[in-house]
Amino acid sequence: MASPIPLRGRLRRYGTSYAMLLPFLALFAGFLLWPLANSLYLSFTTFDGINPAVFTGVDNFVQLASDTRFRHALGNTALYVVGSVVLGTLLSLGLALAFNGTSWPHRIMRTLFFLPSVTSSIALMLMWKWVLYPSDVGLANTIVDWFGGSAVAWLATPGLTIPILVLMSVWGGMGYGMVLYVAGLGSIPQEYYEAAKIDGASTWRQFRHITLPLLRPVTTYVVVTGLIGAFQVFEAVYIVFSQGANTIGGVLDSGLMIVPYLYDQGFTHFRLGYASAIAWVLFLVIFVLSLINLRVGRAMKEL
Amino acid sequence: MRRMMAACSTVLLAALSAACATSGQTQTQQANQNANAPVTLSFWSTGGDDETATFQKAADLYKQKHPNVTVKVQTLSWSDAYAKLLAAATSRNGPDIISGGMTWTIQFGARGAMVDLRKHGLESLKAQALPAQWESAISPDGSVYGVPLDMSTLALYYRTDLLEQAKVEPPKTWEELTATIGKLKAAGVKKPYGQDWGNLDWIGYFNYLYQAGGSFYTADCKPSLNTPQAEQALKYWVDLYREHGAPTATVEGADALDTGTAMVVAGNWIAKGIDINKPKLKGKWAMTTIPAGPAGPTAFIGGRAIGVTSFSKYVQTSTDFVKFMYSDEAITAIADEAKKRNISYIPPRPDKIVNGSVFTPEQAQVFEASIKTGKAAPGCPGWDESAPDVTKQLQSAILGKADIKTALAEAAKVMERNAG
Amino acid sequence: MAVAPMDTIAPVQQSPHGTPTGGSRRARINAHLLRLPFYLLALTMIAPFYWLLITVFKPPRELARTPPSFVPESPTFANFYDPEWSAQAVNPGHLQGIFQRYQVDLGFWRFMFNSILITTSITVGSLLICSLAAYVIAKHDIKGRRTIFLLIIASMMVPWQTTLIPNYVIMRNLGWLDSYEAYIVPALAKAFVLFFLVQFLQSIPNELIQAARVDGAGEWRIWWRIVLPLLRPALAAMSIFIVLAEWNNFLWPLIIVQSDEMANIPVALARLNSYFGGPDHQGAIMAGGLLASVPTIAFFLIFQKYFTRGIALSGIKG
């Protein structure tokens, strides 16, 4: 684009260019870059929201390292993330393989599995809370009752908390992954399979050597976005498991995770410095995960 | 095009001022002292919309007497009210009047966000209030940042038919309670005992702790959970779950009775709805005070405190409104509206528990008995921040993750740390 | 003529991959057997939704009954609005419907209005702002665009919760707490939208834009008349993401909303949830959940084609 434009014209054109960039950049700087830097600064301070922040060095991080609730939150998050991503990805792929045709039963199944993705998430959370109602009027306990069991305290049994959260997440998210996989399957050239068939390759071998490798970019995307989403879980814990005033995280903190703990420290204790340190731990975890996402590297090459 | 540029520069300005704003401080407010100028007070009430409506009735009555004063009551939900009020307290920006958990105003007051009501002549309410509840709302240094707005307490609700079936009387002591549970079980009652309010929560433990002669804090606000009484209480409570099968899941009290639980410890508010919402239970249930422990029958007294924020522009009017909430007419107005809406309300004045009540006289007498010997939450610094962590420690004892001594020691540590 | 990048994604093929196609009867039976677990899984998808739906149409007393009914015995709309409930006297068996529950003017409608207003403003606003910036980054040869783009891409790795506390403090100090501004303004600059639009524009040849420039069209005009229409499929895809995300936004509103009036639907429903635990109230709560879902489900059914394509586009491109 090295056209010989006179200086004035160039200035005018560049001026317009920057003016067009301005709204985005201003908002981007004001509500993302600056807060990000500010949050880093706050994470090295004690800040109660009233008095000016007091610089305390790495105290917050040292304290985090020995904070049993935080470690608990990290452990829970790790379990939840691994559980929901592994199960979610496998089921998404399975569903895509099972229902990727254009016949109406396939379409109906796809719509059904996709439905949670377009249902209001607060509605889903309230629905789960009601399904898991502790007495016999709840759906889950009614089903338990059919099989002769007695009512289960779904939301007050620490050992069940993470499994329930994982199931809620997988239930709500597998349809989304399925849509991605279906699109991925559609972009695999049909000729590969025809050639494989001529060579006498079994269905399994076709799947193993054609489908799976060619789906790798989709899998990366599903896994990485799944990981990032799972690390940020808040609503499910806050709505379904919190009990009463000021209590977040469920019985024995069995559902306490990073973002709920960030909310707890930041907004029910107003320890804004400490909460910022938690926010930065979350940031580092997700940053590392995102670097794995190959999309970035490729996008830069294109520019 | 020009409009577009204008829009862009607005956005830029907004973003720039945002960047600068983090370092700014909120401005102080000017008081408006003109006595007859129209005034609108904002009152944030923690609870449900129905309760808001009852307090709004009192506010409307106040307007009849003071036509220039409008009080607008709005609801905060229990789940995030503390966070919301704390945010308002730290930003010095928000309502004129707040209500919330009994001891909350102490925490906000410690941050300088509340008015000391003593300085506005509200010490006089002390004579009208219940001493145990008043005590709980007072800061350790004697400041009165909030006064009781209403009361709540616990009762033992039971199914008369199921108790008859097992030929037992409602239990009056700890020993009788466990014995009754055993007899009910033997008589084939699958769910002999459950807890609604306070289940797996510090409020549940509160009853046993004080009934055993213990307390959360000493009189001078030192954590006091390392006592034999605290251990005895926790042991008894834990055994109710582990030995006697009290469910860890919290089933709403009326629902629990309806689904066959023989005895339920629940809040006073459920008494209102049982006959109306569970017609099947009519005539098959009754209530009494919760069983007493070795040191007495002390039950938890809950309720809300009401206070005036230090950043209110109308401190004097607001305190006057708070005072008004103790008047006979306000209490009657609130109780009438509560009756219509079928919700519970126990006024903050012990002389009004029975004759200003929304309950039947028999029910009100049970609550009165419970309140007379009851105690309210500890008004010590850091308690509201410690309470969730103390609850976790109690839960770890109940669920067998920690022994009783360790759980109490850990809870005491948290309380120590938050004390300041 | 520019090649629309939509065409780079092959349409979904007729025959399924990975599962046997055509062939013998045995193979077909095998294929169905393989699908069996997924049909069972579909049952677990239906069950909670069905439970939600029947709850909405059961009166309070039926809700509190054990065992629960699986077909509402006395179906009712009372959970939306119960004409027999009254604030003046107790009427046994009648509770407020969702439209009677809030003391705010307009009741639940107010939250519907808030949610719709906020979602629409953010969607339109961010698409305009991001497409402007994307046009410059993709098609203008200016200094620093690579740096800017790199910065924006890097910021996509920042979980927004990291900026939660400073942004809260900013809102507070601007006096924006409890206002539409607090909902909308910080949500306008969306890095992933910009990133996606830039990528999309890069695949569009420059000829059309150059031709317009030769004709003397200004840059703003080119953006409005040429770039935006070219971007239409990408904008459609992005609007789906934005609408869903903003409609469901919960944590940010939870922090910035103070008054009853300013709640969006999720915050308003969470408030009910924290106060009414009993089964008889679940009808009204689920009715609220249903109302919260109707707009997004309708949006999905109308734009179904764009949905799946949009998701596929965002996931596979790049």
Can you characterise this structure?
- Chain A: It is found in: Cell membrane.
- Chain A: Residues 74-293 form the ABC transmembrane type-1 domain.
- The complex is a heterotrimer of chains A (303), B (420) and C (318).
- The two termini of chain A are 14 Å apart.
- Chain A has a two-stranded antiparallel sheet with strand order 1-2.
- Chain A has one domain (62-302): MetI-like fold, CATH 1.10.3720.
- Chain A is mainly α and 303 residues long.
- Helices cover 74% and strands 1% of the residues of chain A.
- Chain A is globular.
- Chain B has helices at residues 2-21, 49-65, 78-91, 104-110, 131-137, 160-165, 174-186, 202-211, 228-242, 253-258, 270-277, 315-324, 328-340, 361-372, 383-398, 404-418, and strands at 39-46, 69-76, 97-101, 147-148, 152-159, 191-195, 261-267, 285-288, 300-302, 304-308, 375-376.
- In chain B, strands 5, 6, 7, 8, 9 and 11 form a six-stranded mixed sheet that branches. A five-stranded mixed sheet of chain B has the order 2-1-3-10-4.
- In chain B, α2 (49-65) runs antiparallel to α13, α8 (202-211) packs across α9 (228-242) and α15 (383-398) packs antiparallel against α16 (404-418).
- Chain C has a domain at 108-316: Orthogonal Bundle (MetI-like fold), CATH 1.10.3720.
- Chain C is 61% helix and 0% strand.
- Chain C has helices at 25-56, 60-63, 108-139, 145-155, 164-174, 180-184, 191-202, 207-214, 219-230, 232-248, 251-256, 265-275, 282-302, 304-316.
- Chain C is globular.
- The interface between B and C is large, with 45 and 42 residues.
Produce a short descriptive summary.
By secondary structure, chain A is mostly helical.
